[in-house]
Amino acid sequence: MDNDNSSAMVCGPDGRDVEATGASLPAGVSVGTRIDIVSDAICPWCYIGKRQLERALAILAKEGLEFQVHWNPFQLNPDMPKEGRDRAAYRAWKFGSAEKAAALDQRIVEAAAGVGLAFHVDLMTRTPNTIDAHRVIWFAGQHGNQDATMEAVFKAYFVEGRDIGEHAVLVDCAAEAGLPRQDVLDFLAGDLAGAEMRAADTAAREAGVSGVPSFFLDGYSLFSGAMPAEHIADALRRGHEVLVKR
Questions:
Q1: Fold of the domain built from segment(s) 44-211+223-234
Q2: What are phi and psi of 64, to 5 degrees?
Q3: Tell me, what DSSP letter sits at residue 212?
Q4: Alpha-carbon distance 212 to 195, whole Å?
Q5: Residue 12: what pLDDT?
Q6: Residue 51: what pLDDT?
Q7: What does the alpha-carbon distance between residue 44 and residue 48 come to, in Å, rounded to a whole number?
């Protein structure tokens, strides 16, 4: 069941859960059908927000409104070593104690359950560097499998507790979404799109993104946070109407 509150939570740049705020719709120049989501693969509110968005899109589809979803990179931990870190130790350091980290985890598990997701934080032993995950998600986007790959990456980390910093795990995720395993292996063996992912992360921050998920319609900011589906649907509906009339 969706949360009745109009507020939502985002993953802040320091990894803490913070309350999101909406943004007024600026002027647009085209019909509003492209949704861009700025997110990180290890942001729990991004996965929860994905579920809420899916529910919102189902509501809007019944009204004859169709949208295209695109995923864009953000790093919650841009200084994370390539090999990642032990999750328990890292979060205890980041949040001040193991108890505070555990309390945050419990809150997230409960929120995830509210949208039908079974997070298994007990299985999550590593906090990964997410550049390669973003690269794979970008690669999938070039082949029309981006949303399915994003889903597989989220599931691997939050539900299965796998280390999405490992190439073998990312290959499994992409293959689950329908991409040829060898093509993904070959892609990950190089550094194609690595610089672009870092540049996109920087551009998002310079554009004012301070927490994820952040949602844009035709390039214009709508809101941040894992809003309830009805609120997402309303924001997209109003945004679409504004853009169409201009």
A1: Glutaredoxin (3.40.30)
A2: 85, 10
A3: B
A4: 21
A5: 61
A6: 98
A7: 6
Strand partners, 71: 37
Cβ atoms 9, 45 nearer than 8 A:
yes
> Cβ contacts of residue 87 below 8 Å, gap of 6+?
124, 125, 126, 127
Bridge partners of 221? 216
91: its two tokens? 């979060």
* SS3 label, residue 222: strand
What is the 3-class SS of 106-118, one letter each residue?
Answer: HHHHHHHHCCCCC
What's the confidence (pLDDT) of residue 210?
A: 86
pLDDT, residue 11, reads 78
Q: With beta carbons less than 8 A apart as the criterion, state whether 53 and 226 touch.
A: no
pLDDT the model gives residue 192: 92
Whole-number Å distance between alpha carbons of 221 and 215: 6
**What pLDDT does 188 receive?**
97
Residues of the chain with pLDDT under 50: 1-7, 21-30
CA 154 to chain centre: 8
Contact 50, 151 (CB under 8 A): yes
CA distance 177 to 33: 24
Distance separating alpha carbons of residues 80 and 183, to the nearest angstrom: 27
The alpha carbon dihedral of 180, 54, 207, 74 has a sign of negative
Give 107-112's long-range contacts (Cβ < 8 A, gap of 24+): 107/17, 108/17, 108/44, 108/45, 108/48, 111/3, 111/9, 111/44, 111/45, 111/48, 111/226, 112/44, 112/47, 112/48, 112/158
